[in-house]
Amino acid sequence: MDSIDSLEHTAWLTHEGWRLLAFAMASQVPEGFANLDARGQLPPSALAETLTTARMTHSFALAHLQGVPGCLALVEHGVQALRGPLHDATHGGWFDRPQGQGGNGKAAYLHAFVALAASSAVVAGASGAQGVLEEAIRVIEERFWSEEEGALCESFASDWQQPEAYRGANSNMHATEAFLALADVTGDALWLQRALRIVERIIQGHAAASDYRVVEHFDAHWQPLPEYNQANPTDHFRPYGTTPGHAFEWSRLLLHLEAARHLAGLSTPAWLLASARALFANACRHAWNVDGAEGIVYTLGWDNQPRVRERLHWVHAEACASAAALLRRTGEQQYADWYGCFWAFIDSRFIDRVGGSWHHELDPGNQPAAAIWAGKPDLYHAYQAVLLPTLPLAPSLASALARNVTKR
After folding, report:
1. Cys staple from 386: which of 17, 71, 86, 225, with CB 3.0 to 4.6 Å?
2. Which sequence ranges are marked TM in the entry (predicted)?
3. DSSP bridge partners of 29
4. What is the Cα–Cα distance from 257 to 264, expressed in whole angstroms?
């Protein structure tokens, strides 16, 4: 493939981004955004989901900042949904779905995405976004952030009672992403300090002690739960074992944090780069092409053997983004090679040039499947994968795109 900075490759990424956006625009429903089926249509039972609404709002904000026509109206639709039917006006925070539609506990994972969406919408200039951002920050600080633990608590009942006796790396990973964006939008370096504290606990603490395999599940005292969900290994958000896709995602976020702290004039621990390298290397070693077929398996057991062999689109999107970040940071050819390898696999297997967007899942033989993920509900991972290689490691996506617009 062409080099990461070539005009040809940049044009290809831009075109692929337009394809993804055109497909995702059909997800709009009155109360936000809903999940599309494999053909890009709303199922008869389509219902707005807060996670989908937040991810779509964030993605359309990025598209607006790129100058894609029609996207600001979609951002403002998402903002109004987050201000209205998806917001809990009684207790604060956000439901999983509109009130009365079920699944209305309060999860850190979800609120991290609301904060990310609100921050991007503010940068995009969307009406009402500042109020959503202020509410998201208030809820994170008052309900989820534990100063004692240096991380987020996991979840509560809708009235903020019954805290879950569980701590998760996944929710804290997306909190790290959101905190990096909040630091840019608010100008408050406290968010960079909080991001570093999360990384110190989960990566420098637990992952480093486990040969840079990301420990995903913990009890309320941050003791690892290695057998968690052993009977439910294909869980969407809390699968058993280790998740190579998260190792790639953490790798990129460590480099983003390093660059953001450097820009802010803060100390940048040397282990951020070393850990990013190790996370990436181990994920490649243990998860790529390990069962006789190309691709990255969804999960590994603690013996580093494949446990769930399906290939998920988001894992490969994050692998591309991580390789691009390491290449940008180090200039080393090995990361250029991996970057080309991952995109070649996505191009030949995941990109659906007939039905649109990307297949969200492949079976172990690399044929389209839906054992874990039905349909094509998610724009976030794939769209970020076509943007991140074109941008610096910091600031965060929306702020970086806004700076590009300013320079034109």
Report:
1. 17
2. none
3. 32
4. 10
Phi, psi torsion values for 173, nearest 5 degrees? -65, -45
Phi/psi for 125 (5° steps) reads: 80, 25
List the catalytic residue out of 64, 111, 359, 381. Answer: 381
The answer to whether 217 and 224 have CB atoms below 8 angstroms apart is: yes
For the segment 10-44, what is each residue's pLDDT rounded down to a tens digit? Answer: 999 999 999 999 999 999 999 999 999 999 999 99
CA-based end-to-end distance of the chain: 28
The string of pLDDT tens digits covering residues 347-375 is 999 999 999 999 999 999 999 999 998 99
Question: 3.40.190.10, 1.50.10.10, 3.40.980.10, 3.30.505.50: which CATH number matches 16-407?
Answer: 1.50.10.10
Dihedral of the CA atoms 263, 189, 79, 254 (nearest 10)?
A: 60
Q: pLDDT tens digit string along 187-222?
A: 999 999 999 999 999 999 999 999 999 999 999 999
330: tokens are 């180090």
Kindly list the domain boundaries of the chain, sorted by start residue.
16-407
- Nearest 5°: phi and psi at 288? -90, 125
Instruction: With CA atoms as reference, report the closest residue to 79 among 112, 18, 125, 34.
Output: 125
Query: Is the separation of the CB atoms in 385 and 317 below 8 Å?
Result: yes
381 belongs to the catalytic site: yes
What is the spatial distance between Cα 295 and Cα 290, in angstroms, rounded to a whole number? 8
Q: Whole-angstrom Cα distance, residue 242 to residue 215?
A: 7
Report which DSSP code applies to 298: S
Model-wide pTM > 0.85: yes
Catalytic residue chosen out of the listed positions 246, 313, 316, 359: 246
| pLDDT band with cut points at 50, 70 and 90 for residue 283 | very high
